[in-house]
Every structure is written in C-alpha cells, then in structure tokens.
Specification:
The chain has helices at about 1-30, 35-45, 55-65, 75-90, 95-105, 110-130, 130-145, 155-165, 170-190, 190-205, 215-230, 230-250, 250-265, 275-290, 295-310, 315-330, 335-465, 475-505, 515-535, 555-570, 600-610, 620-630, and strands at about 515, 540-545, 550, 575-585, 585-595, 635-640, 645-654. Strand 4 (about 575-585) and strand 5 form a beta hairpin. By secondary structure, the protein is α+β, with helices and mostly antiparallel strands. It contains 22 helices and seven strands. Helix 7 (about 130-145) runs antiparallel to helix 8, helix 8 (about 155-165) runs antiparallel to helix 9 (about 170-190) and helix 15 (about 295-310) packs antiparallel against helix 16. The longest helix is centred in the middle third of the chain and has 133 residues, at about 335-465. Keywords: Kinase, Membrane, Phosphoprotein, Transferase, Transmembrane, Transmembrane helix.
C-alpha cells in the first residue's frame, strides 16, 4: 500500500501545480502594463518562496516572458533582479551572483539608482563567500552609481562597507562609514540597521589597538536600539560583543556574564548559518577561563571550538583559539601538544597576516581611488552648477532685456499714439484758432471801417457847430462838449482797434516818409483840446515848427494821441500835461510828462513781457499798441518816474 500512497501524493501535487499554473496565467493576463506585471510577479514569487521555490521561479520566468527587453529594459532587469533576491534569501550565492550580472546587463545606464542597488547586493553576495576584497570593490561600485541624494541604498552601502572594513582590520575607516550611515537610519527610524551601525562601530573599537573603551558605550547604544526594535538577533550579538569587550578590558566577571547569556539563549544553536557566532562565543569563553585559571572549563571549550573552526576553515578564529590552546597546554604541562598548536598558530598567523595586509592595502587603495573619484565628481558637479548659474544668469539677462525692450516698445507706441493724438488735436486747435483769428480780424476790421466813418463824420459836424456862429445855451454847450469828448475817445478807440487788428493779422507795416512833426503835433493838440477843457487841465506842446522826420505819420499820430489821452485821463485834475518833441543824436525824442502816479505795475510787467491779460483795460491796450508801433520804427519806449512827475519817453531813429 505504501507505493500506492506515494504515487497518489505525487499525482495530487501535479494536479495542484497545474491548477496553480492555470490561475497564474489567468491573473497575469489581467496586467495591462509592464510595471503591473513586475509588481504581480514580486508579490506571488515571495509568497511561495519557502514552501515552493520552484513555483516562485516559474512565476518570475512567466512574467519575464511577457516583457520585451528592447521596449522596457528597466522592468525586464527588475524581474531578473527579483530572481537574484530569491536566491539571496535562500543563501544560494552563486545563483544570486549569476542573476545580478544578468540584471546589470539589461539595466539602462540612466537608472543609476537601480544599478547601484544591484552592485550593493553583489557585494553582499561576495561577503557571504568570504571574498572580502571583491565585496569591498562591489560596494564602492555601488557608491559610484548611487546618487548623493539617495537616502535608502546609499546608507545601506555605507553600513556594508563598515562591516567589511572591520573584517579586514581597517577599523578607523569602518567607523567612518558607519557614522555616515547613522543620520540616515535615525531619520528613517530604521532601528535594525541603526543597531547594526552601533554594533559595527563597537566591534571596530574592540578590534583597535589598543582597545577603545568607548566600545562598551557603543554596544550598549546598539543594545537599546535593538530592544526598541524587538530585534532578538542583534540583542544576542550585543551580548557577544559586550562579553568580548569586557574580556579585553580585564572585566572578567562582566565578560562571563554576557558570554554565558549569549550561549544560554540557544538562538545560535538552532540554525547552521550561525556557526561563526557559536565559534566566537566558545573561543572567547576559552580565553576567559584561561585568564581565570579555570583550566578544566578552558579545556572543555577548547575541545568544542577547535574541531568546528578547523572543519569550517574559520582561520581568523582558529588563530585566536590555537594561541589560547598553546598557553592552556603549557600551563597543564603538556608541552608536546603546546608545541604542535604553536606550530599551527605560527602558520595561521603568517597566512592571516598576508591575507589581511593584502586586503587592507587593496581596501585603502580603493578608498583613495573612491575619494579621488568623488572629488572629480564634485568638481564636475561644481563646474556644471557654475555653468548652469552662468546660463541662467545669461538667460535672465536676455529675458530682462527682452522684457525691457518690449516695455520700451509699448511705451514708445503709447507715446507715438499720444503724439499723433496731440498733433491731431494741435492741428485741429490751430485750424480752430486760425478761424477764430480770421473771424476776430474780420470783426475788428468791420468795426474799424464801418464805425470809424460815421463817428468821424459826427465828430466833424460837432466841431462845425461853434464855427458857424450858432449860439448855444450854457446847458447845450456842456452837452455838446460831453458828446464831442465821448466821440473823440470812441474815435481814438476805433483807430487803436483797427491798428490792433492789423497787427494780429500780421498786416501792420509802417510806411515811412518825410513827415512834418509840428503839423502832426498840432493836429493831436486840437483833437485832445476837448479832453483838456472837460478835465480842467492844461496841455502844452513844445515842438520846432520846422521839424521834419522820416516815419509813418499815421502811426506817430496814434502814438501821440494814445499817450496824451492817457495822461489827460489819469493825471490829477487842474494839473498840466507837457509834450516836448526834439532831436537828440539822430533820434526823434518825444517826452510826455504829467503829475500823475504813473502806469500801474501790472501793466508795466505785461509790457516788459510783451503779453496781455484777459482782463485788459483800454489804456493797457493803447500802451501795447504804442509799444508795437515804436518797435515797428526801430525805436525804444521808456518810463521815467521823477519827483512829483511821471514821464513817458520814446525815441525813433532817423
């Protein structure tokens, strides 16, 4: 019946495997992307790793067949890398290395993080094969590929390097790399790896020559972190390390406490992969009881540790064991055995020193190369950074320049629009002003021509009434004089208005000829005599009867009439107005003096600036016209306030 039962179990396992395969293929068909295929393969392969390792590899192989390496080499390499991880978990080192190399061959160079991760795993595999030299080389390769900003694999690589460098007695460098990793693990609260860092630092301090007393502190820190994480394995490792540290520091009772505590847990005696830890415990208990001179227990532990260490070729442990056994059997008086172990010890020392020195030299050489490589990378990164800064500055300057140019163009465009608008408005205003000026000039011309004739005729008729001998009553005579005065002023105003309109129209030009100055003065005197009698003032004329001068007679008459009229109107009543005309150094000088206060300051300012205000009085207009006519003759006009007198003097050149 037994063969039948075996056959039945085999057939049922085949059917179960076939059913699982069908289900796997069905699930795989639901994955739409390569990333989904990879994630599904990782999940299912690790789920069956220990019970059905062949099935796990079948899952990965099936997933790998669904990914085209030419189209997605990254996912393809990650699935191969998962093959390597499965072999690493099962301690199948050669298969692990095979798949790591295969994954590296398919990983694109741009994925530097994944390449660094694979090199780190490769270093761990060589460490398991006790090929420390090659393991250190692969860990340095990992550091070269991993970005400086990586906070996951880079600290793990620092920790692996720290462990490896401790194994080849490069203790200072081991401590340095573990200290680099500590801040990362503290930040991520990775207590397992943080514990390993403190533990490795403690071991390196124990291994230093002389021993660094701080090793006890480091191991206790590692122990506290391990308790927080509930990491039984690291707690037991701390017990071993504390036992070794106290042994080397001479604290024999403390050493015995921790070593026996590690031995009694039984943790290292359940799995064959902890052979090295068992040997370390026994070797140190051998040295402990040798120092305590308890030779019976020392022989007991010597018999435990020596054959196992020799069988498994743990030469560094065997070196320390044989050294203790030489002293042990020498104390027991068995010189033959002591001599045999002494010969073996010398051979082991020679081999280990040669291997340690070679590996130490190689590790130091690689460390120097790594530092040079890092410096070169830093220089390249600094140069690239400076180049980027330069390019950014140039780009910013360009953008700033373009922005300023655009702003200037917009401003210029707005200014151009404003100028065009202003020009248009100015043109329209100029046209409007020209129209107003033409209308004004036409109005003034109409007033001057159409009103001057009737008023002049009326004035002439009023002057004829007394000459005809018609008698007038005193009242009528007063009315007659007032009418004659008013018409005289209006006639003068119209004369000024006509000349003003001609000046505004740029049509006012003097027409010079030889003029009888005496005749013009007398004509003005006769015209102003009406104002003289009304204002109860006296007008005196002093002029040479034979004086002739080249000028515009009408303009000169207007000048005299305006100045004398103003003097008669504004000077105090019952005073005298003097008009003197004479020649001085080729100038015809005309002085008109009165007893008045003179011309108001605001009119003088207007005359000096050749401008008028909108609220201009008639006298102001007359003075402006006088100034224009004098300048047309090339003459000068001046105002001379004297004591109790005010004189206006104008000079006209010959």
């Amino acid at each position: 019946m037994k063969p039948y039962a075996t056959l039945l179990l085999f057939v049922s396992s085949l059917l179960s495997y076939s059913q699982d395969t069908t289900e796997i293929l069905r699930q795989l068909d639901t994955c739409q992307t390569n990333t989904a295929i990879k994630n599904w393969a990782v999940q299912n392969s690790r789920a069956h790793l220990w019970e059905h390792p062949e099935f796990s590899h079948f899952v990965l192989a099936t997933a790998l067949s669904r990914v085209n390496p030419k189209q997605d080499s990254l996912m393809y390499s990650k699935i191969i890398g998962e093959h390597a991880i499965l072999h690493a978990i099962r301690m199948e080192t050669d298969s692990n290395l095979y798949y790591i190399d295969k994954a590296l061959a398919h990983t694109p160079h741009k994925d530097s993080t994944n390449i660094g991760y694979l090199y780190r795993n490769k270093g761990v595999a060589y460490n398991q094969k006790d090929q420390f030299n090659r393991a250190i080389e692969e860990q340095y390769n990992a550091l070269r590929w991993l970005p400086y900003t990586d906070s996951v694999y880079r600290p793990l690589t620092y920790l692996e390097l720290g462990k490896l460098l401790y194994k080849i007695d490069n203790n200072s460098l081991s401590i340095s790399y573990c200290e680099k990793a500590i801040p990362y693990f503290e930040k991520m609260e990775d207590y397992h790896d943080l514990c390993a860092c403190y533990n490795t630092i403690g071991l390196a301090m124990i291994n230093s020559s002389p021993i660094d007393p701080r090793c006890i502190q480091m191991e206790h820190m590692s122990r506290r972190v391990a308790k927080i994480a509930g990491d039984t394995m690291n707690i037991n490792n701390n017990n071993i390390n504390l036992g070794i540290a106290h042994l080397q520091l001479g604290n024999l009772d403390s050493s015995a406490y921790y070593l026996h505590k590690a031995e009694n847990t039984g943790y290292y005696f359940k799995h064959d992969r902890f052979v090295e830890q068992r040997l370390v415990i026994w070797a140190n208990l051998l040295g402990l009881y040798l120092k305590k001179e308890d030779y019976e227990k020392a022989v007991y532990y010597a018999d435990l540790v020596y054959p196992v260490a020799k069988e498994n070729e743990f030469n560094f442990i065997l070196e320390h064991v044989t050294a203790s056994m030489v002293d042990l059997y020498a104390e027991l008086g068995d010189m033959t055995r002591a001599l045999n172990y002494s010969t073996e010890y010398a051979t082991l020392v020679k081999e280990n020193i040669l291997m340690s020195n070679t590996e130490l030299f190689n590790s130091m050489e690689r460390e120097i190369q790594e530092r040079i490589y890092r410096k070169e990378l830093e220089i390249k990164e600094r140069e690239a950074s400076l180049q980027n800064i330069k390019l950014n500055n140039e780009r910013n300057l360009l953008y700033t320049g373009v922005g300023i140019l655009i702003i200037l163009l917009l401003v210029m465009f707005q200014l151009y629009k404003l100028v065009v608008k202003q020009r248009k408005e100015a043109s329209e205003n100029a046209m409007y002003l020209n129209e107003l000026n033409e209308s004004k000039n036409r109005l003034f011309s109409i007033i001057g021509h159409d009103l001057r004739g009737p008023i002049g005729n009326s004035l002439f008729l009023l002057k004829e009434i007394p000459q005809r001998g018609d008698s007038l009553t005193p009242g009528s005579l007063t009315i007659h004089e007032n009418i004659q005065q008013g018409l005289t002023e209006v006639h003068g105003l119209l004369e000024n208005l006509l000349l003003w309109s001609r000046d505004q129209a740029k049509d006012l030009k003097v027409r010079k000829s030889d003029v009888d100055i005496h005749a013009i003065a007398m004509q003005c005197y006769n015209l102003m005599s009406v104002l003289e009698s009304v204002r109860h003032m006296k007008l005196s004329m002093k002029v040479d009867p034979h004086l002739f001068w080249r000028l515009d007679a009408h303009a000169y008459s207007t000048i005299l009439r305006n100045l004398i009229s103003n003097a008669l109107k504004y000077a105090p009543q019952n005073t005298e107005v003097n008009c003197t005309i004479y020649v001085e150094q080729d100038f015809l000088v005309t002085e008109i003096c009165d007893r008045g206060k003179g011309i108001p300051d605001h009119l003088l300012k207007e005359l000096n600036h050749k401008s008028e205000t909108g609220n201009e009085k008639l006298g102001g207009m007359g003075l402006k016209l006088v100034q224009i006519l004098v300048h047309q003759h090339g003459g000068t006009l001046s105002f001379e306030p004297l004591e109790n007198r005010f004189c206006i003097v104008f000079k006209i050149p010959r």
